[in-house]
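Q: Predict the assembly, please.
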Amino acid sequence: MRHSRILKDGVATELAIDPNQKQDMTSQQWLPATTGTVFGIALNDKELCASLEQAFNEKPHVNPPKTPVLHIKTPNTHIGYGAAIPAPADGTTIYAGPSVGIVIGKQATRVSEESAMDYVAGYTIVNEVSLAEGSFYRPAVKAKCRDGFCPIGPWVVNKEDVSSPEKLAINTFINDELVHSTSTDQLVHSLQKVVSYLSSFMTLQEGDLIIAGTPLRTEKLALKAGDTVAIEIDSIGRLENTVINEAELG
Amino acid sequence: MKRARILLNGELTNVTVNDNLDAVLADGTVIAQADADWQPPCDGKIFVLAINYADHAAELSFKAPDEPLVFLKAPNTLLGHNKNTYRPDGIDYMHYECELVAIIGKTAKNVSREDAMDYIGGYTVGNDYAIRDYLENYYRPNLRVKSRDTCTPVGPYIVDANEVADPHNLTLRTYINGELKQEGNTSDLVFNIPYLVEYLSNIMTLEPGDMIFTGTPEGLADVKPGDEIVTEVEGVGRLVNHIISEDDYLKTLG
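A: Predicted assembly structure:
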């Protein structure tokens, strides 16, 4: 089953959707598919890490990361399917960040990798939008926490309906052109490992979301006002959003 | 007015706080300070300033930054007044950080420094514990250092902004078991509250209940299980916290 949240008569409402039924995506106003805290795992893509191998051993980093590198996507960033991603009015380039999202199903404190999946409800699609990151030394609040920089949805798919979460194809389209392909098999730290690691010092709650990992943000993933960006993930669905100049928000 | 939240019969309950610092329910019932189950006084985004006092920057061998060095915490880390924070086994250095917390009172986007104070609803006290053993040079200070369960006591209550005459001239003090360990004044903030509201609201929309932990002055020290840590901000409040061992913490998880 697919679990989404929609705006119905002005009220956030849960909507369960049978995956065998065709869904008219234009018939609903979709809200972010999850409501909890959203954590991201940075530097969790093999190609991205390979590209930074030298930098990891130089100042200011000095050493490669010993543990998964975490960040937070604040609530102002969360938007639903079909909502507009505001690009900075000054024309600064923004980049799509395609990733599978791991949705927590029950409270998790200090869970092992072996039992991690018991605490997962399912998966969703996340577009972890970001400005370019020149450095990974300091927290990326400016790059990652602008309003609307985290489309989530359109729904959460039960984990039972995703047979191979460790090798899901992730394709990104800009204006209907396929610009990027990756897979969850490119993650450095597995889905189980990131759930276990986060829970080793933070209690995860039902509805919390972990963005498993985003790829190297090349110019292929650059977005500008007027674009439509879509991320498709096997067994989960398609997350589509437009990009507008934030000056148009009024 | 002082406003707080307590857990009463399993329900998060809004209260006011009287001059004895006891909790007062809407129907006038008084619950003594020592008997109230104090919870964090609000919900919202949690912004924390690193090295935002010049003396503290020197203590950490850093130059004060050219722009605010802001990091985020997740709600899991918040803890109310009079609660227990655990020290993990096998670490060398866990320290408190006494901070004035400015709380957003109304939605703020692209607010100028001149107007910024109109968007502050109140103030509270925060203790931004850090475990330095876990520092890594990626998104530093990283979440494992700063966003841990039990590691951010906040409260006991929010003082309305109009009752704090000058938030930029308040003494901060931390005591370990009654001994004064840290002392500073918000007049030494590198980036003051209007600057921070302008800076953050230029990045994103701020909402009522969002918390800005404004940073800590010099005077850090290690804390051990059994210690009572009191962080206080003049005219705002006095926040009590107790350090327990990891074993004792694990027992509370059941």
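Chain A touches chain B at residues 37, 39, 42-43, 60-63, 65-67, 69-72, 74-77, 109-110, 136-142, 145-147, 201-205 (CB under 8 Å). The longest strand of chain A covers residues 150-158.
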